[in-house]
Amino acid sequence: MTEQELDRLEDLLASDAFKGDAMTLDFLQGFLCAVASGPDTIAPTIWLPEVLGESPAYESEAQARETTDLLMKFYDGIASSLAGGEGFDLILYGLEEDPDRLDYAAWSEGYVYGSQMGESNWFEAAGEYMTDLSEKMEVFFLLNGMLKEDALKHKEPWLSPKEEERALAQAEEDFPDTIGEIYQFWRAQTAPPSTIKRESPKVGRNDPCPCGSGKKFKLCCGKEQTLH
C-alpha cells in the first residue's frame, strides 16, 4: 500500500463511523500478521467484523466499500510479504509518555488477539513442537505485558527492573524476525507430506533375495512372519 492509502485507512478507522470500536493501525497490522500466519485459513467474513466493531454507521455505501477495499489490500500486502519471506514496514507509534520510544505493546496485543481467530488453539495445534512455538510467542507476551501481569497475578517471582529492561530490549530486537519465523513454523506444520521416491527397483516375490542367500525373496527376507 502507498503511504497515502495507509493514511486514508488510518483516518477511516478513526472516523465517527466506528464509534471508537475499530482497531488502530498498529494493532491491526499485528492482528492481520497472526491471521495470515496461523494453521487455519480465516475468511474475511470472520476477521473483518473484529477489525471494525459492531454495526459501523457508515456515511455512505462508498465509504463502506472504500474501507473494506483498503483493509483487504492491507491484508493482501501482509500475506504476500510473509509468504515471500520479505520484510515490510512495521507500524509502531511512539509512547505517549515517551515519544522517542516505540510502542510495541499495541502491535503485540493485536498479534496475540489475531492468533485466537481460527478454530485451532495454536499451542494444541503445534503438538510436539509446542515448546518451540511458546518460545517464539514469548516475544509478544513479554512486549504486551501479559507475562508480567500473569506472574504478578499468581504471585510468582518476576524480573528485577534491570532484568526486565534487558529482556524487553532483547524482545524488541527479536520482534521483526519472530514474525517471519512463526509464519514459517506454521507453513512447515501444515505442509503436505513429501512423496518418498523409491531409489532401488522393487523386488518381486519370486526374484532372488537381495540379501544374497540364493533363495527366492518370498522364502527368505520376504517371508511373512508368524505371530505366536
Q: How many helix segments?
A: 9
Element order, helices and strands?
Answer: HHHHHHHHH
Segments where pLDDT lies below 50 for 5+ residues? 194-200, 224-228
Structural class, judged by helices and strands? mainly alpha
The residue fraction in helices comes out at 40-55%
Mean pLDDT: 87
Distance between the termini: 69 Å
Number of strands: 0
| Shape designation | globular
Strand content: under 5%
Q: Could you give a short account of the major beta sheet? A: none
Rounded to an integer in angstroms, the radius of gyration calculated over CA atoms is 26 Å
Keywords:
single chain; mainly alpha
Write a structural description.
Helices cover 54% and strands 0% of the residues. The protein is mostly helical. The C terminus is likely disordered.
SSE order and pairing:
Elements: H1 3-13, H2 25-37, H3 44-52, H4 61-83, H5 104-114, H6 122-125, H7 130-143, H8 146-153, H9 161-190
Short description:
The protein is mainly alpha-helical. Helix content is 54%, strand content 0%.
